[in-house]
Amino acid sequence: MTIGQPRVIVGVDGTEGSIEALRWAAHEAARRSWPLHVITCAELPVSVEAVLVGANVSGSSMDATVREFGAVNERAVQLARSFGLAIDVTGETVLGSAGYAVVSAAHDDDLVVVGATSHPGRLNDVLGSVATVVAHRAHGPVVVVHGADRRPAAIGRIVVGIDGSPCGDEALLWAVEEAMRSGAELELVHAWSYPYASGRTVTNDPRHEMRLDAMRALERAELRAKGLCDSLRVHSIVSEDSPANAIIEAGRNADLIVVGTRGRGGFASLMLGSVSRTVAQHATVPVVLLRRPE
């Protein structure tokens, strides 16, 4: 349920990656004319929590931790205000698990922004625990900002994965709106590999027919994008590759990648689709993860 004005919500813990996420979030808030809300979580180490609970000591250590992270939040808010953007910036420090706190603070229409880490390995290692929890559990769109390098604030090129699914349609719609908002060009990427999931009976050369089906799906998406905004600059790529690899490759020189996820309610909501998971894991530019509305 949406309550009030939609916001851009960003999680900041003082690390370089989270500061880059803050910068990206602030400029996105300016593009949307939305408020920016900065959340910092004071999360006690498990060993400290065990001592506090077992010894039944006062909350002085907990208060000190909240003050420490509160200072981080105040600095982040001041930094966001120093960018000189016409946005309202607020901050909040909460005690608890960072990922769950960010998700709990966000309404369905809010845009949640988190930073990723750059360590190779499993999804949890690559994205970090906060980004992983947020990406899996948030109901609205999530942006995962990679790296700590200061990228250009403007968005000039958006890559969106197209697969003909409802999730892919949601990603296309979001990408078109973002392109209209930022004046960016849109690049639609549709990948296929043998065997290709086609609704038709293949009677001629299979690879040729599969490529034609992929091109038709891409053409339908391009027509839909143009129908939403006829002045939109749209380019299309059809690639004989895995969808994730094709999107990552196309996005290397882009400013933003948009993909739909196939997450659902219940236990399935704990998992991202394989394509969105791989793209979020290995892309080098900000990645928007979109769930189909319930």
- Strand proportion: 15-25%
Q: Count of DSSP E strands?
A: 10
Q: Can you give the mean pLDDT?
A: 82
- Give the name of the CATH superfamily of the largest domain: HUPs
First CA to last CA: what distance? 11 Å
Elements, N to C (H/E):
EHEHHEHEHEEHEHEHEHE
Spatial order of strands in the largest sheet: 3-2-1-4-5-10-9-6-7-8
The main β sheet shows up as: 10 strands, mixed
CATH topology of the largest domain: Rossmann fold
Label the CATH architecture of the largest domain.
3-Layer(aba) Sandwich
Shape: elongated
Segments where pLDDT lies below 50 for 5+ residues? 46-57, 118-126, 263-271
Helix content: 40-55%
The Cα radius of gyration reads 21 Å
What's the structural domain tally? 2
Structural category is alpha/beta
CATH domain class of the largest domain: Alpha Beta
Q: If helices are DSSP runs of H or I spanning 4 or more residues, what is the number of helices?
A: 9
Task: Describe the 3D structure.
The protein is of the alpha/beta class and 294 residues long. It has helices spanning 16-32, 46-55, 60-82, 98-105, 123-137, 166-182, 206-228, 243-250, 274-282; strands spanning 8-11, 36-42, 89-95, 111-115, 142-145, 157-161, 185-192, 234-240, 256-261, 287-291. The chain has a 10-stranded mixed β-sheet with strand order 3-2-1-4-5-10-9-6-7-8, with helices on both faces. The longest helix has 23 residues, at 60-82. The chain is elongated and about 75 Å long. Residues 46-57, 118-126 and 263-271 have low confidence and may be disordered.
